Amino acid sequence: MGDPNVFAPEWQDGAPPGIKAQMVGMAAGATELGATVYELEPGVAISPYHLHHANEELLVVLRGRAALRTPDGDRWVEEGGVVAFPRGADGAHRIAAGDEPVRVLLVSTMNYPDVSEHLSTGTTLVMPEPGTGKAFAADGERPFMDLYREAIERDKSTS
Q1: Res. 157: pLDDT tops 70
Q2: Rounded Cα–Cα distance for residues 35 and 12 (Å)
Q3: pLDDT digits (tens, 9 = 90+) for 57-71
Q4: Cα–Cα distance, 56 to 11 (Å, whole number)
Q5: Omega before residue 71 within 30° of 0, cis
Q6: DSSP states of 103-135 as a string?
Q7: What does the CA dihedral 53, 59, 64, 66 come to, rounded to 10 degrees?
Q8: What pLDDT score was predicted for residue 147?
Q9: What is the pTM of this model?
Q10: C-alpha of 144 from chain center
Q11: Which helix (H) or strand (E) element contains residue 102?
Q12: Helix, strand, coil distribution of the chain in percent, nearest 5
């Protein structure tokens, strides 16, 4: 396999419905930066409205335009637009497609453990380490994908 390409990603299995994803940072050999290309079907969000306590993120819109929710309100980010999300409350965000598909690159620091608060749903996730796919509710009882799906559904009803 050659170098990963954000314009011709090799989509990975296991993404939630309506989302295609490739972890291009990992595929390129990055160990301290995460970078994932997402392609979202109309109306689909990468995640619920949330913030991170340990990691900063950076959004680059590669194709189309992304619907973005931040503490400053809702807006569109046009193709080529770049937006940073610092750690904490000021960096809260939700990235989604509008009426058309959108392709974005999301880059983040890889500081672990990390705690992610899904603000509109009241869900708190603890991510103990990278690359394991393990994340748990603050009570430690429920796995990440169950919480993710529930939070996405709840967030749809609050937006």
Answers
A1: no
A2: 14
A3: 999 999 999 999 999
A4: 24
A5: no
A6: EEEEEEE--SSEEEEETTTTEEEEE-STTS---
A7: 30
A8: 66
A9: 0.86
A10: 13
A11: strand 102-109
A12: 15, 40, 45
